Amino acid sequence: MSKSNFVFVLDADLKPLTPCTPGVARSLLKSGKASVYRQYPFTITLKKKVDETPESVTIKLDPGSKTTGIALLQGSKVVFGAELTHRGQTIKASLESRRSLRRGRRSRHTRYRKARFLNRVRPTGWLAPSLQHRVETTMTWVNKFIRLAPVNSIVQELVKFDLQKMENPEISGIEYQQGELVGYEVREYLLNKWDRKCAYCAVENVPLQIEHIQPKAKGGSNRLSNLCLACEKCNLKKGTQDIEQFLVKKPDLLKKIKAQAKRPLKDAAAVNSTRWALKERLKETGLSVSTGSGGLTKFNRTRLGLAKTHWLDAACVGTVEMLEILTDRSLKITATGHGTRQMCRTDKFGFPCRYVPRNKFVKGFQTGDIVKAVVTSGKKIGTYVGRVTVRSTGSFNISTANGLIQGIGYKNCVSVHKKDGYNYGF
Questions:
Q1: Are 200 and 230 in contact (CB under 8 A)?
Q2: Rounded CA gap, 44 and 181, in Å?
Q3: 224-238: per-residue pLDDT in tens?
């Protein structure tokens, strides 16, 4: 039987109280002592004030390039998990599209516009929009959880990889390198760089060993550019052969491995550049902020025998003795944005192709709302819950977990959660 996330509880003054189990929340709602405050994340509000001091909650964050893991803990109990999917790549693609359209306009015979080069000053701490988005969306949800739960501290995974150790693996005499975490930082980096596959046969979901591309017996070093991952079969088969000799009949694979070995880990670089900015923003909340490394996170997760998921990684961030997992369903949060101000859509060449209605509300709904539609007649009988796309005719489209349902009348729809720039699921 699955265990759902705990429910957030507010009193009559919207003061955050200790989160409760879904069963307790159900009883409070059924008895009329509480009402639903928000659907995602599910929150109830009591109909009276509470003067008791609630049990403190810790937010743990595992920032990622594409997905950030979030876990809420009461002591050693994990009561809430969420995975926040960013839209950094979408922002990057939109900026590139805008740039290409502007380049096209510059070559046309249009009015003269003064050149704008060399007059843009970037402030200290500036990040590219796709990177800044990761910081802003994470802070949005941290602030939301602070309003919904009695949060007193935040723990963030600050450094994904120990760069000093990876640059010079032979360094000695430093105390932390002689402890239990030896090798975890390098292994985690290689797992990310080589997509958790064997470099030679691409097999997945098997134990992988660290392999020297240029064998140590023939002068190879322990630097990252000389390391890859290999399954036991390929590692034994290669032995101390040069990679050119081992892959003499596979020139394409040889070329790919050599290129991959020199390629920096782009996602790790992007994340490392945003983690420090995120830390500074977290300090502005006035709460206690502590940090941990990615190697320590993996060590904790492996020691506790937990599955590899973003929200469980978040629960393992920092110093962890033990964890009691009270939920096994994380809330999937996907950043969708708030739409665009563009009134005229263009094709790939920059020419107008369609126009956007002036009024974004149709029959009380707007694109991005999460609705529940109950259809009792016709070809589309059923109950559908998902993100709605409105049309001025009143015939809506609903994006559900099972696909897109088109042509649902507005009279069949009931709003579940108003548009807030995110989509939700489990």
A1: yes
A2: 42
A3: 788 888 998 898 888
Residues 235 and 211 sit within 8 Å (Cβ to Cβ): yes
- Strand pairing partners for 291? 156
Q: Euclidean distance between the first and final Cα of the chain, in Å?
A: 15
CA distance 264 to 136: 26
Lateral strand order in the sheet of 403-409: 403-409, 395-400, 382-389, 370-375, 413-417
Contacts of 65 (CB under 8 A, 6+ apart): 86, 88, 134, 267, 268, 270, 271
Q: What is the pLDDT of residues 64-117, one digit of tens each?
A: 888 999 999 999 999 999 999 999 888 988 888 888 777 776 677 777 767 766
Task: Report DSSP letters for 163-182, one per residue.
Answer: HHHHH-TT----GGGGSTTT
Among residues 381, 418, 386, 380, the alpha carbon closest in space to that of 400 is found at: 386
Cα 261 to Cα 213: distance, rounded to the nearest angstrom: 9
Taking the CA atoms of 206, 207, 211 and 216 in sequence, report the sign of the dihedral they define: negative
Per-residue pLDDT, 177 = 40
- CA pair distance 35, 162, nearest whole angstrom: 48
Could you tell me what percentage of the chain is helix, strand and coil, using 3-state DSSP and rounding each to the nearest 5? Answer: 30, 30, 40
